[in-house]
C-alpha cells in the first residue's frame, strides 16, 4: 500500500482507536484524524478528505448502527471514498446495508481480524484499491443460513468454494492459489456462478459484488 494513503479512524473505545492508529502509522501510513462518534468522523472526512475511512459499527449515542449510517452518508458525500467497517461480531443486515450500492472500495471485517495484522492490512489495501473485503466468518454464516435458496442449490460444491473466496474479496489469482487450481478453471467457475445466479454482464452493478449481495440480502430476510 502506498505510504501517502490518508486514513480516518472512527472508534469509540480510545484504547482500540489509538492502538489501530499506532499500528497503521507503524506501517508508514498517514492517519490524518481519529474520532469517537459518527458526527466527528463525518466532520473529519469533510475536513481532511482521506482516501479511506475505518469505522466501528456501533458508536455513541445509542451504540447500534451509527457507524454504518455514517459510512453510508460518507459514501453519499464522497462516492470515491474507500470504507472499511469493523464489527465485534457478525451483523449481516449491516453488511448488506453498507454494500447495497453495489460499488467497490468497501469492506466489512470482524475486529478480531485486526489482530492478524497481515490479513487486516491486505484487506485494507484491497479496499483502498477499489475492491471488496468481507470477513470469512460472515461468508461462512451466510452459507449456513442460505442453504434453501434455490439459486444457491444450483451451485456445485466447487462453485460454492469459489464464491466464498470471492465474497472475501479475493481475486482470481488468489482464489486459484487457495484452491490449488488454474486461473482458467477459476474463470470458468465464476462464469458459471454468474449464470446460475442470473447475473447479466449488462447489469450496472459489479457482478462480484452482486453475487455477495444476493446472499447477504437472503440471509437478512431469513434472520
TrEMBL record:
Pfam families: GerE, Response_reg. Transmembrane segments: none annotated. The modification 4-aspartylphosphate is found at residue 56. Keywords: DNA-binding, Phosphoprotein, Transcription, Transcription regulation. Residues 148-219 form the HTH luxR-type domain. Residues 6-126 form the Response regulatory domain. Signal peptide: none annotated. CDD domains: LuxR_C_like. The keyword DNA-binding applies. PANTHER family: TRANSCRIPTIONAL REGULATORY PROTEIN NARL-RELATED, TWO-COMPONENT RESPONSE REGULATOR. This is Response regulator transcription factor. It comes from Amycolatopsis ultiminotia.
